[in-house]
Amino acid sequence: MNLDDREYLIPTRMLDYQHPQMQKLVEGRGWRKLAPFDAIGAIYAFVRDEIRFGYNRDDSIPASAVLTDGYGQCNTKGTLLMALLRAVGIPARIHGFTIYNELQRGAIPNYLMPLAPERIIHSWVEVLLEKQWINLEGYIIDRDYLDQVQRTFADQCDEFSGYGVATTCLKRPQVDWSGKDTYIQKEGIADDYGVFAQPDEFYQKYGSNLSGLKRRLFRYLLRHLLNWNVDRIRRKGLPVRKTTSIGSTH
Question: Which range marks the domain in which residue 152 is found?
Fold first, then answer.
């Protein structure tokens, strides 16, 4: 391991992989015994599909809290992914962005869209494998939820934006680990904030999506409405298709 890579392995307040619950998961899954390629794939699959797509109380909660919740979105699932990768000795860092809120339409019901900021804080994880940084973003949407979106828009293999997805081909999005970049919301990116060694630094600099009353409303009420909507889609599928709600990324 290059000495310069050590900053991508350390625990932080958010990347609390030394937490007993995190250590129990890592040991129980046997991820430390795997070769790096296989360990990345196993951890990635766990975060993508066993941690469901949903909205936590805050972007800057620690990885152990995301694990306890059992759900997350781009930022919080990314924190968990980074922590688990570091726990098995694989360097990981965060790349910060904003995304246009329109790609969340559907996951966010229309009646709540006016409360969403136009540009939403977003991030993906970069993992170091064989001296190459690989972008990982395809972990955000769990397979069961994605299957429901694909089932409704089965004919879409051009640019698609909606329901938490922004991709050039909904039928075959780049979401499976193969040693290459994975993406599920990349086509909705607005601003690029660059790479940070620690998520703590990124959120300290750029804060969260909401503040004041809106932040309190989100924490105690709105996110529960969002999670109810997402879970309903996952269990029952999408409502009657409305082509006017889905379009180009921006």
Answer: 3-245
